What does this fold into?
Amino acid sequence: TLQHIFKEIFKASLELQEDDNRKALLVSRKKHPENTIVNVKGETVGDGEQRLIMGPCAVESYEQVAAVAKEVKARGLKLLRGGAYKPRTSPYDFQGLGLEGLKILKRVADEFDLAVISEIVTPADLEEAIDYIDVIQIGARNMQNFELLKAAGSVNKPVLLKRGLSATISEFIHAAEYIVSKGNGQIMLCERGIRTYEKATRNTLDISAVPILKQETHLPVLVDVTHSTGRRDLLLPTAKAALAIGADAVMAEVHPDPAVALSDSAQQMDIGQFHAFVDDLIASGLYKDATKTPQ
Amino acid sequence: TLQHIFKEIFKASLELQEDDNRKALLVSRKKHPENTIVNVKGETVGDGEQRLIMGPCAVESYEQVAAVAKEVKARGLKLLRGGAYKPRTSPYDFQGLGLEGLKILKRVADEFDLAVISEIVTPADLEEAIDYIDVIQIGARNMQNFELLKAAGSVNKPVLLKRGLSATISEFIHAAEYIVSKGNGQIMLCERGIRTYEKATRNTLDISAVPILKQETHLPVLVDVTHSTGRRDLLLPTAKAALAIGADAVMAEVHPDPAVALSDSAQQMDIGQFHAFVDDLIASGLYKDATKTPQ
Amino acid sequence: TLQHIFKEIFKASLELQEDDNRKALLVSRKKHPENTIVNVKGETVGDGEQRLIMGPCAVESYEQVAAVAKEVKARGLKLLRGGAYKPRTSPYDFQGLGLEGLKILKRVADEFDLAVISEIVTPADLEEAIDYIDVIQIGARNMQNFELLKAAGSVNKPVLLKRGLSATISEFIHAAEYIVSKGNGQIMLCERGIRTYEKATRNTLDISAVPILKQETHLPVLVDVTHSTGRRDLLLPTAKAALAIGADAVMAEVHPDPAVALSDSAQQMDIGQFHAFVDDLIASGLYKDATKTPQ
Amino acid sequence: TLQHIFKEIFKASLELQEDDNRKALLVSRKKHPENTIVNVKGETVGDGEQRLIMGPCAVESYEQVAAVAKEVKARGLKLLRGGAYKPRTSPYDFQGLGLEGLKILKRVADEFDLAVISEIVTPADLEEAIDYIDVIQIGARNMQNFELLKAAGSVNKPVLLKRGLSATISEFIHAAEYIVSKGNGQIMLCERGIRTYEKATRNTLDISAVPILKQETHLPVLVDVTHSTGRRDLLLPTAKAALAIGADAVMAEVHPDPAVALSDSAQQMDIGQFHAFVDDLIASGLYKDATKTPQ
It folds into this structure.
């Protein structure tokens, strides 16, 4: 019985410690029970409505981005993604248009009244970039680039933080804490698949991370179905799963002509597939923003 | 240009080879495009309707199983799960009631007109067990126990095959092929989470495996939300994701008093939670069998 | 300070609990500090000397096994491996010669005065097999085939237990406990690589498992360099690492003509490579059994 | 037979393509068969001699670093490690002394005639840091911080590049290519364990990566035994494995008083353990630099 008492103390202290740790974080729901609603140029994320964030993997030209933006706009969507600084495994792969790409995004955003999301890969680029984009994306490879997190935490602009390739949920939450600890609480968390032994998909979509992140933090949680799966044929089913499990937004890549895309050609939707994708989500009854989307 | 032609030949031959391999398997949809519908004592799995398979982790007593069966029956469900032979990490953990457990399942099944699913762990037990159960379950740890697969392939009884702890989708499909190659094509595949570095959940539910398995094979695909997550708070959200992505059935554990369960006490639902679970799935509009379920 | 005291109690109780658990196991070094030395037909494993266990992946014919056995004998080695029951991913791959294969092994063992190690895959085969082999191998796919473990624990014959494809060290130790709990303590543990995201090797050799297993248990620990790496060019370097870190034996596959082998053709050494392998290990000074090996 | 010819063409073209890709990289041994020998203030790495790189996890004070440096010097070693910018999971953990830490390292290096290795975490710090350190370390979390790689490639100072937490060997090689593509070829690759499901060690030391990296590239390959294992009791056995498999250097952490260390207290050696570690490596006969080390 002494041992039993000891065991109970042990369990109690274990739970106490864990609770303490979680409570201490600014991103923790224990600290702040209400949902954080991120406002991107008037479009809200995290308020119960569900959003679609679509656009090309990389910005290649004004024409390419505008072609996608036109369709995105036509479906009543507001959030456009597109990469200008592209982190690529090989130095000999297309590295993105850089500042030129951001200018294209800005021009398109102005013309179509959209908000643009683009990845920033180093603190030095941040100041310059901030005038051109509406959401700073921090990519999977930079989830623990702490200097970049601190820099993003020091500006007044929403941040979309992607989960690292093999980051634990706890590390992901602490990465967000780096940002908020510098003063910027406008953060969206994005599950984008984790690295496992299974190679049938590019990564393994950790769908359970969505309810866990919503429970542990007060931040909006997104699912990037393109990078999770790396397979065009899985975009629609995984998007349904993401909406059903309560993701605040789904992110996917669209390109006017994926076959000639400078990156990720195998996994982007073309315009027709994009419309079919939105149609199918509406038809499924899962997409909670459907009322706003003209059909 | 010679190099280009060479490349094209290369790609074509690669695809041809892969197609050939897949076509050769009896479980392949290429070989047999129509869905296999498994009939379990009159209840169908794989025909577009979605089923719930519920019951205790382990059979502990007649009273315990009957208590769950009564509620399962009350919701119009037909499929009851319960383990009699329990594969446990330690030899000193509860190993199940064995044949006695199967007899309890049979008695309960008869009384409530339910079909029972129970795991068999070695070929020698199969002959004896077959009179007591309606579906032979082959567990994750035995997915590549090829002698057991062959034995299950030699009887005329549906088989529920769980994916191995770290099995690839291809290995999972080949394990099913072992069964069908012996003559038994009544197979249900069950995704139950894979082992990854992430420890926030007991395993990582590989939700993308569901559409891949349905595309590659003609067999029904189930999701076991209990073993995927190991967390009671994630059963409902992951069940929603499973239904949304097209799983033919969802499996979860229910126990009259989880706190005193002899195994898996932290992850089983109690009776009240079970009813809330079914209610919430119906309310979500995701559960395609809802019409049959009295509310 | 109250919190500090609480923390200390917490840590102490955590350590106490873990110690208790480990102490309770029969395989634990806490329970039995001396090394278990397994005696295989006069050849010892686990006494500080280091052994090489070589032989073909699968038994294909008397001539094939004898050709390897002759060379193994010529180097003063005693332990010959060869598979008669082959667990294969696909039912259409070569499944081994079964009992016929065991008879070949027995004949070769008698002619060359060697001890033979061969995998058994199901309890039903065990009784029959036991007259033909000197060590029962339980393969990675069957590490948690608990009925097979119990059966192997009930006979009086050394067991070589391989670590499961994605088994934790703790699960591996508990699998050995299943065997010893039935009365058979003549167990050798074999690290053979674990499944990870890295595909440059067939599996990832978890070299740290060797000192951990030797510390946690009193059993001999082996390293199978063939299945860990799946690459002929890595057999020698990983064998050196295994000997340097204290493995009691190294296991590798040798075939008279790997190119026509019915399984694992890409990773077996031919006779010339086998001699070069032994020569290089002796020359490295790492191989503690070198004095017994004629050059 | 037509099919057979087709298959042969297929295999040949596959090999050709892979060879082409590898040959194209500047770090590839196909491009540059001779070993790159990195010269750090007169100490060579990669020339067949084997080195030990020791020092505290984090620079905490002049006294702390000097206490370790004195012992390192006493053993005839030349390379001292120590972190000034510390990438930490939580923003509330000790973040390192920054520039102040680099100044301490420089002062100690001058006094004891040692070369110092320290991690740089963002391009902006590089210019300033370069006057204080002899080797730029790029840590696991920044292995795909491509802007940092490019910055390190643009200076004339050796770089120690650590493998990412879940980087493939191919990604690791391409990260090195980012550095050399900017003009700096003085690169050392460091295996430091990969993230897997196994939690008995902090990471899983991928020992096979050493011979693969030496075969695929012409760069020196190191093994960090501290971060691979996260366990003081495994430093010596894994160091032996690393030396036996052909690592050009072994890295490990030493602290005058690990119990009060501001980071990684559980895994650093104290001074006595450091001397025992060096003694044991010399006694093992594995350490090829032993002749230079006074005993």
About this structure: Chain D touches chain B at residues 6-7, 9-10, 13-14, 17, 166, 195-197, 199 (CB under 8 Å). The mean pLDDT of chain D is 93. The beta strands of chain D are 38-40, 43-45, 51-55, 79-81, 115-119, 135-138, 159-162, 187-191, 221-224, 249-253. The two ends of chain D are 68 Å apart (CA to CA).
